Amino acid sequence: MDNNCGHITTSAMDPIFDSRPDSLLQCLDEDGELALELVYDYHDRVDDEWEAELAAKALKSAKKEKKRKRKHPRKSPTASNFMKMNRETGEMERMLPEDSTWYTLYVANAPSTPRQLMKFRRRARMPYQKYLELVEDAREGDWFPNVGKPDATGRPGAPLELLVLGALRYLGRGWTFDDIEEATAISEETNRRFLHEFIRVGATIMYDKYVVAPTTAAEAEEHMHEFEEAGFPGCPLSSDGTHVVGEKIQARLKNQHIGGKESHTARAYNTSVNHRRRILFSTRGSPSSWNDKTLVLFDSFLAGMYNGSVLSDVEFDLLDYDESGEVITVGYSGAYAIVDNGYLRWPTTVPPIKWPVTYNESRWSRWLESMRKDVECTFGIMKGRFRILKTGIRLHGVEAIDHVWATCCALHNFLLEADGLNERWEEGVKSDWEGPMGDHDEADVPLIFQRVRGGTVHTDFSGMGNGGDESPPGEAFGTERSGGSTAPNSRGSATSPAGGEASAIVGSAGASASGRKEVRMMEFETFRLKLVTHFQSSGRGRKSNGHLEME
């Protein structure tokens, strides 16, 4: 020890000036034996060097932590950087949310004129009354318990009305949090936190409330009416997949999320809708490199229809022909969905015939394609209303992307009444978000409802007619392929019986306890041909003067 300084000498701390042994070889005496005193000095030196190394690491870590800390104290949750002048004192003071433009236009003074209401709907992506209903539901359900409470500095909390407007503007028009701060005088950090809370609530509480998948025949009955009228009894929905771009997916997941229809990282969702464009079910989210065949395996709703755990009690009848060519009624149990040709060949997922052989197959496939466009129109409405789904989601992580999609699905169903799509399907109601409001070309929107309710569908694009000596393709064929009906004229003849009294329900192998055939137990091609036969036998269409007339 240094008597003048009262601490360990430099030689005890610096290995260069340390005279103590640095190895056991230096602890040997002249006779080649270990000297205990030198061994003790060696162990002391090792301990001192270890403590010095730990102290250096701790100092280095502390310096790094200091660099990570914010140079400025965190702002108050509701404070913004905007200032205003007090007209009475002439001094500058911080602007409150109650002084913002949005609060003046939409909270303190509600829109009243038709022009104001129209502009609010275009900006918030929903009518003003629906916006008030959404805010009221959030208050009554206490969805955001921390909103509106004073912060640690005693400042009052941000108004819920402005925070909800900011979240809707972010989802609907793709604004940034800085833009929302400028309109609400609420800090972008507060808006960012609230948006994550909003989409979390949207993916749980709102989704469970507004997106309800039918599991029994009673629940599915309201969704099957339009399909039955169109010639698809037993079908409550159409299904397809869509991609949503995510700009900030984790780097370790990037390779899985590049592929499919997008050149950017994206998530894939398989969604089922009814004919009125109400979303009945959507998968949580999968890498965009997965195709429809893979997605359907993770779709618990469609997979449930196939394994019999969902909608197995649905019962319906199809028209068919017996051996003598008479029209009979065959009973079936279980439900099915209409899809495109990208899905697995399950009897519960029925696509159009890719390479039709007969005229009836071609006509039935075109009709199914028209009905299946319901789900495509739903995607168009959602991406037109919620611009973030079209331009890309800028939130970090796949969980946030899935929350945004689920929230948009819930809001879509919540707003069906405002769009007029919850009822009156026969009148051909179209959503505003398919047109200019959603930035979609009108020519890209199929006129499904017009085809369903009737009218004439022209198939002669040349304008010259069939000619008197030529029949449509497949009209001369009178027998079914393997798996179909063997009745004469059951395929091509346009004069086959269109009605007749229903006979007793026919049973067969794979029939249920009630004597009905189970759809999920049938061969894929067999059941699809039965649907073609029913469509032709039920008089859903007939050929007349080169045109196809729908009844």
Kindly describe this structure.
With 551 residues, the chain is of the alpha/beta class. Helices cover 38% and strands 12% of the residues. It has helices at residues 10-13, 36-68, 101-108, 114-124, 128-140, 160-173, 177-184, 188-210, 217-229, 292-295, 300-307, 359-385, 388-391, 398-414, 416-419, 448-453, 524-537; strands at residues 83-85, 92-94, 237-248, 266-273, 279-282, 286-287, 315-321, 327-333, 337-338, 349-350, 393-396, 455-457, 517-518, 541-544, 547-550. Strands 3, 4, 5, 6, 9, 10 and 11 form a 7-stranded mixed β-sheet that branches. A 3-stranded mixed β-sheet has the order 7-8-13. The longest helix is centred in the N-terminal third of the chain and has 33 residues, at 36-68. The chain is flat and about 120 Å long. 37% of the residues are buried. Mean pLDDT is 78; it is low at 1-13, 440-509 and 541-551.
Structure keywords:
three-stranded mixed β-sheet, disordered C terminus, seven-stranded mixed β-sheet, 551 residues
